[in-house]
């Protein structure tokens, strides 16, 4: 049989020492009054008080008493036996019952503690009445009231301790939860920033490098027959490299794109069309409709990146001769339409993105639009060109609202 039980409710060092001093003081009082009053059996009273004090003092030094309910009960039985002997010899021993109440309630199980307190109170009343050779209700009031006070104090202390422990655990859980939340937010921020960086690199550096590659291939094909044309392609590739270097430096510095510095979105799109037309066999035209209205920087950057990516895809894959970029202001919305007369494709049969072959452009454009609460639609068919439309609300989405997933 397991003789151990959960440890008693811990008591503070101050309370423990106060209880020790109270027991020793009351035992010393009983012995001192027996000697001072020259009572019969005074020497025996002093001896029993000393033995009771030694037995009591031995308890706190024994590790088993602190760990085992059974060992604590045996120690309390020894102290109680010495006290009963002292009570039979001196009526002053009745005061020792009060600290015994606290020991019994603290060390014994919750059911056995009150029973031991009741037995100790009854023994104190009987012992004191025997010394007085009479009994009156007043003799029972002191021990009974002391027992009631001890029960109320100990149970109240245990309730406060349990509440304190519960609050401590809640605080620890809250601290752990806050740490987990901070880690989750950090991870989400890292993933969001990684996704943003991937879109920025794809729409700027990757498209610029692709343009440089196309220009250099054109220069390579023109070298034997038309060195002037090849030189023009090389010059365009060099200018594209300069522009991409500026993009990379500003991208690292986390500033707005150079194409938006000192100009409007319409001006940046017009310049993008002119640059594309000059560098590639594609006539790109820019149009604007509606009353121009100021847009947030995030909206302008998103629309410019979408246009850059769409035109880059047109140059690389569409085999188109013309492309139209239209910026439309529609009251509470702004729309960007890019159409071309290329060979088109089946949107339902797009290849999966591949690190070698690419294919991340459409997903990046759609992610940009959705991040600002907008939409991106694609219409195409083999032999009928491609039309891409991005619509953004002029008011940024409320960050407190849950994100909508298509």
Descriptive notes:
The protein is an alpha+beta fold. 65% of the residues lie in helices and 9% in strands. It contains 11 helices and 5 strands; from the N terminus they run H-H-H-H-H-H-H-H-H-E-H-E-E-H-E-E. The protein has a 5-stranded mixed beta sheet with strand order 1-2-3-5-4. Helix 4 (69-89) runs parallel beside helix 6 and helix 5 packs parallel to helix 7 (137-222). The longest helix has 86 residues, at 137-222. It is rod-shaped, with a radius of gyration of 45 Å.
How is the secondary structure organized here?
Elements (H helix, E strand, L loop, with lengths): L12 H24 L5 H20 L1 H5 L1 H21 L7 H11 L4 H21 L4 H86 L4 H26 L12 H15 L3 E7 L7 H22 L3 E9 L2 E8 L20 H11 L3 E6 L5 E8 L13
Parallel strand pairs: 1-2
Antiparallel strand pairs: 2-3, 3-5, 4-5
Helix pairs in contact: 1-2, 2-4, 4-5, 4-6, 5-6, 5-7, 6-7, 7-8, 7-10, 7-11, 9-10, 10-11
Name the descriptors.
5-stranded mixed sheet; 406 residues; 9% strand; 11 helices
Distance between the termini: 63 Å
Give the % helix: 55-70%
Helix and strand composition category: alpha+beta
Oligomeric state of the chains present here: single chain
Number of strands: 5
Question: What gross morphology would you assign?
Answer: rod-shaped
- Percent of residues in β-strands: 5-15%
Tally of DSSP helical segments: 11
Specify the biggest β-sheet.
5 strands, mixed
User: What is the gyration radius calculated from CA atoms?
Assistant: 45 Å
Low-confidence stretches: 1-5, 399-406
Strand order of the largest sheet: 1-2-3-5-4
